[in-house]
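Morning - aspartic acid inputs below, output right after.
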Amino acid sequence: MLRTLFWLAIAVVMTDCTANENTAKQAADTRPDYVLVIHGGAGTLSRQAMTPEQEARYRSALDSALQVGEAILKSGGTALDAVTETVSWLEDCPLFNAGRGAVFTHEGRNELDASIMDGRTQNAGAVGSVTIVKNPIRLARAVMEKSPHVFLVGPGAERFAIENGLDTVPPSWFFTQERWDALQRVLKRGDKTGSVSSDLADYKFGTVGAVALDRQGNLAAATSTGGMTNKRWNRLGDSPVIGAGTYASNDACAVSCTGHGEYFIRYAVAHDVWARMVYGGASLQDAAHEIMMKKLVEKGGEGGLIAVDRNGAIAMPFNSEGMYRGYARPGERKTAIFADE
Ligand code: ASP
């Protein structure tokens, strides 16, 4: 009797293993050649608050950014190069809160943060509070590839940038009138530093990020931001924090976040998506949904994330009114802003 039960149990376990293997194989067989997903920040983005011209400008910028990364992935380039170049392009575009177009600190400066992670090696690089580096994402990548460290901040990070020949610019390069006016409105209202409650429109987040899966099956994630309007005391958000704003590991997924950074740090959001998949066996969709639409909603953390898994599945959940976002995979390129699309 016991013996029969034993063999029965073995048979059940083996069927289960074969089923799992089959599902994994099927998923790998249907994996698209490449996938690129981007975001340009989440926040109070409604159709009413945007003119058709503004909307068209954002959609066209998102589409151009997708084309930059897609060209790399299509020709067999790496996910790491695709996210670096896509985010770099978004940093140079003044519409987004990263690089040129970054929001202003309480003192009227632009302090930039960025991070990148290679899912193949799980190497990572991050920079915080830099003020003269044209493309902070390139600096984050240089930290990953040319230093023994993961995270450099402030003047030290800038010295490292200069020593490694990265492009530097005068701080005025990052100035845009729109962001300056947003700071003036916030200062006039006397909003408490770090609060985003008085008029969310001025805190329209606008961080940028990209995640990609390449032909070789490698994943990568990158995020870049000016942080939050009226920030102070060298405040850092989640964007440069590996595990909070950015995470990538070939065994599951690549994630880039945007939103009220303090919450994303507290709940290690990007890593949480990975952990729910790897430890909990969740699908990418379920993992991303649980943290973004349940846990963060419960805690009051506004924002969104983009993610791609090792089989090319995509998730782009957000709990704010809208999120600038888009994706590209063979034969399909799509951009979206509002919740109902
Ligand atoms: N997460 C960024 C920060 O808190 C802001 C954003 O995503 O817009 O610095």
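Note: The chain has one domain: 33-338.

O.
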